[in-house]
Design brief:
Layout (H helix, E strand, L loop, with lengths): L9 H15 L6 E3 L8 H5 L5 H24 L5 E5 L8 E2 L2 H9 L3 E5 L9 H11 L5 E5 L4 E2 L11 E2 L1 E2 L1 H7 L6 H9 L4 E5 L5 H6 L6 E3 L1
Length: 219
């Protein structure tokens, strides 16, 4: 969304694609899950009288638009990708088939998992956790606008404290808005670590992957 009130900012898409491409060239196997809040938020729409299930389905479709935008930006950099959607739309992208996704990863193609879980009432955070568990990922890396997980909103409170390490239990006990309850629980049950970092800083993703102390680790 960038500085716009809604929609897709091409400069932001280019930045994200450049960051991901720099890591892909290191030989890292990458799966991506993208939200759709820059276009449509099902939960917000339900407060305006839209049926929750309908709103969530509309939100899932918006993640497909974002996924295609990122795919286009990555492929312009000669990075091979595949979009797999949890909602079938064969003329646009592949259906979600786990074995095929794993094979793509083995061939060093980036998989972009679109349409969330394919079911209403589940966030893209939960979709990310679910897909990460399914492909046996080593870690979930969540890109945000801030430097990690804080004890309060750093965009409102300049004295907010940054955590470098947290346990799943601490995240749940403190009610920290890192990811929703379902996704945190899924990660805890499968011993899947989460790293939250600032995606907007150039070179940050490559630093993180290279083992530098970037963001907050939840494990």
């Amino acid at each position: 969304m960038g500085s716009q009130s809604f929609g897709i900012d091409s400069k932001v898409v280019e930045h994200i694609a450049s960051e991901v491409a720099s890591v892909a060239k290191m030989g890292i196997e990458i799966g991506i899950v993208i939200g759709g809040g820059n276009i449509y938020r099902g939960l917000s729409a339900s407060k305006q009288g839209v049926d929750r299930v309908t709103g969530d389905m509309m939100g899932m479709l918006s993640t497909v638009i974002n996924s295609l935008a990122i795919q286009n930006a990555l492929e312009s950099k000669k990075i091979y990708t595949r979009v797999q959607s949890a909602i079938k739309m064969d003329e646009i992208c592949e259906p979600l088939i786990l074995r095929r996704a794993v094979r793509h990863l083995e061939k060093k193609r980036i998989i972009i998992f679109a349409a969330g879980t394919g079911e209403p009432y589940f966030t893209t955070d939960t979709a990310a956790a679910l897909r990460a568990v399914e492909i046996k990922a080593d870690v979930i890396i969540k890109g945000t606008r801030v430097d990690g997980v804080f004890d309060s909103d750093p965009e409102r409170n300049k004295k907010a404290k940054l955590f470098k390490k947290l346990s799943y239990a601490e995240v749940l006990r403190r009610g920290l808005g890192v990811m929703d309850l379902t996704s945190i629980t899924l990660c805890r049950e499968n011993k899947l670590p989460i790293i939250v970092f600032n995606m907007n800083k150039k070179g940050n993703l490559k630093k993180l992957i290279s083992g530098q102390n970037v963001g907050t680790i939840i494990s």
